[in-house]
Amino acid sequence: MSSKRKIIIFDTTLRDGEQSPGCTMNLRDKLLVAEHLEALRVDVIEAGFAAASKGDSESVSEIARYVKNAAVASLCRALPKDIDASAEALRHAKHPRIHTFIATSPIHMEYKLKMAPDKVFEQAIAMVKYARNLCEDIEFSLEDASRSERPFIYRMVEGVIKAGASTINIPDTVGYAIPHEYAQLIADIRKNVDIGKARLSVHCHNDLGLAVANTLAAVAAGADQAECTLNGIGERAGNAALEEIVMALTTRREAFGVETNIDTTKIYSASRCIVQVTGSRVQANKAIVGENAFAHESGIHQHGVLANPLTYEIMTPESIGLPKNKMILGKHSGRHAFDSRLVELGFQFPADKVNELFILFKALADRKKTVSDADIEALARDVLNPYVERIKLKYFNVLASNAITPMSTVRLIIDNKEVEQVASGDGPINASFAAINKLVGTKAVLETFKLNATTGGANALGEVDVSVREGDRLARGHGSSTDVVEASIRAYLHALNILMCEKGSSAAV
Ligand code: KIV
Ligand code: ZN
What we know:
The chain is an alpha/beta fold. It has 4 domains: 5-278, Aldolase class I (TIM Barrel), CATH 3.20.20.70; 294-324, no CATH class; 326-383; 391-503, Double Stranded RNA Binding Domain, CATH 3.30.160. The chain is built from 18 helices and 18 strands. The chain has helices at 13-17, 27-40, 54-66, 80-89, 106-113, 117-132, 150-163, 179-192, 211-220, 242-251, 253-256, 267-278, 299-307, 335-344, 351-367, 373-384, 428-440, 484-503; strands spanning 5-6, 8-11, 44-48, 71-77, 96-103, 137-143, 167-172, 199-204, 225-228, 258-259, 329-330, 370-371, 391-399, 407-414, 417-424, 445-453, 462-470, 473-481. It has an 8-stranded parallel beta barrel with strand order 2-3-4-5-6-7-8-9, surrounded by 7 helices. A 3-stranded antiparallel β-sheet has the order 13-14-15. Strand 13 (391-399) and strand 14 (407-414) form a beta hairpin. Helix 6 runs parallel beside helix 7 (150-163), helix 8 (179-192) runs parallel beside helix 9 (211-220) and helix 15 (351-367) packs across helix 16 (373-384). The longest helix has 20 residues, at 484-503. It is globular. The structure holds 3-methyl-2-oxobutanoic acid and zinc ion. Residues 16, 101, 141, 143, 169, 171, 173, 203, 205 line the site of 3-methyl-2-oxobutanoic acid (KIV).
């Protein structure tokens, strides 16, 4: 048995991560993420904020039913109705955790809560006791702890532990901390408060680009739990990235003297899953999971790596589940290469589904020179979320310049009937979407639109990811073409087809 201190990995991709602009996920997406988090062997999955909405409560409850090994947490303000909502949503969890919080910094108490510190203290204690009657495992967060006053922090930490909290989180809510100060805060709490068996947790935001550095400094200073998200998604500049924390603790295990339960070989596929369900790509030079993280461009580096990988590689691509030699997939690729790429991207389909996907892949490869990971993920998503393509694009024709109002004529085939509309808009894409809206008669709203050029040169392939909301339902669509207007239309129709299929309604044509 290892004698190293175990660091608890608390993943909040589904809660704080989902709070980042454009990263809203639907229930199916969240369950897929939860599956990856279980494969990664994270210790705690924060599934959402049950009191926020009916949809959030349902997601927490479904995830709680689904997750087998990790503890499942639901965040709530220190209010009885929020705590009740969390307890109810966690009813079927094997290891439920209520995570409640209140702000403790002078600025938050005075301007946001409009409460005196004594009142904040009383409410925190009362609510931890209240929650403790509903659930054994209680985490308490001192929101904006890094800007709170030491004596008040000590008083709160001691009080909530006595009231029944077993994990105390010290968040750097606004990403203001710097590593040595934050480490000192954790060391000071340990020194000044008898925390007994309770655990200290850290939760860092990345406003100054220091979230991971702060987390690691705090771990070295005695924090027991690190809160983080996949790809570092989260409010504003994001949260501390799980993959960076875990790979730092693993690669430099002797320096930290700690270990985690994480299966690092599942990192790459989990990261890809987040890209796929949020449509939010990671920058090429992002540590660990960026496209260039293991690419060696300069001749000197390439020579060194060929002679001995340790010359320039501090960890292997395989350690995060990335194949050493990534093959380009195209129309000459065989079944074997395709199957292994699916596994690398984190999909586990039964044989009949893989056959179905391979046929779709071949059809796509006939149209495109190379098939990207995003294309394969989009195909796989269609197989995971089957829908009927009731709306098809026949053609479109745009009239656009910098001197006229852009117009688009779109001809669709909806349930085998051809229909056509003309509309104007701020640009050719906007005009095309307006024409489609008229034809489909939808009240759907375009929530996010992301355009990416995946190949170089003037004939680069445009990949478009959109998310479209209709009421409380959200669908993501993906489209690619050498023409960005066409890629956009295809992505939009993809999302509308999913929405129509889920609703089972007919288009108002
Ligand atoms: O950033 C923060 O302070 C939080 C807490 C509510 C845990 O997300
Ligand atoms: Zn946060």
